[in-house]
Amino acid sequence: MTCLICGNPYQSMATWTKIFLYELDSSTCIRCLEKFEISQSTIDFTDFLGTPYEGAVDSVYCLYTYNEAMREYLHQYKFLQDVALAKVFARKLQQAFHTKEGIVVPIPMHPEKLVLRTFAQVDELLNAAQISYQQLLIKTKSETQGKKSKKERLKTTNLFETIQTIEATNYILFDDIYTTGATIHHAAKILKDAGAKRVDAITLIKG
Ligand SMILES: [Zn+2]
Asked: What's the CA-to-centroid distance between 196 and ligand 1, angstroms?
């Protein structure tokens, strides 16, 4: 097989799980996969204490750190629009979602941004991992988060609106990167206000 990242041929490893159970292949060689660093950091929500977003998110699980390999990956995946790269983390994502129960809700892009990017990179990560999800949110504001301070981001009115009925059940938000946590908290609050019982979040990266 040919590695999606380095382009070199490699032998896919036959494991017992692969033989007996259905397991996705990430189409990436071991050398490239090992360059991604598993995130060990625990997310605390102290920034949100005393804000309207306190208690909105029940837990956040981030898979990887934002290291050099991940920076290069994101550049190629998002900006050079190499949609095939969505497969790289398919297996890891499948494992992560197996540990949680709930309706998976990807964080949507603003429609204008989607036109620029041509594909929804967050949705494609889930598609590649064969994780079913529901589009329950739309992004109504297109402010660039990078230009605002953390305080400003927390104060802004919610970035999202619901587009379908939210049930009294568990939801799992999914996004590519967790940086300040504002995006995840905004989305979680909208779901909780609409009746969600519990909102967990999984992100590929801890920024
Ligand atoms: Zn490789």
From this structure: 41
- pLDDT per residue as tens digits for the range 110-165: 888 888 778 899 999 999 999 999 999 999 876 555 566 666 666 667 889 999 99
For residue 125, the CA-to-ligand 1 centroid distance in Å is: 19
> What pTM does this model have?
0.90
How many angstroms does the Cα of residue 21 sit away from the middle of ligand 1?
25
124 C-alpha to ligand 1 centroid (Å):
21
User: How much distance in Å is there from the Cα of 169 to the middle of ligand 1?
Assistant: 40
Q: Which CATH architecture has domain 36-206?
A: 3-Layer(aba) Sandwich (3.40)
Reference 106, options 80, 128, 84, 75; nearest CA is: 128
Strands (E), the chain: 59-65, 103-106, 137-139, 160-162, 170-178, 198-206
CA of 146 to the centre of ligand 1 (A): 32
pLDDT of residue 149: 66
Domain range summary for the chain, segments of one domain joined by +? 36-206
Per-residue pLDDT, 141: 76
Query: Containing H/E element for 72?
Result: helix 68-74
Amino acid 44 reads D
Q: Which residue has the higher pLDDT, 193 or 17?
A: 193
Q: How far is the CA of 29 from the centre of ligand 1 (A)?
A: 4
Task: For residue 6, report the distance from its CA to the centre of ligand 1, in Å.
Answer: 4
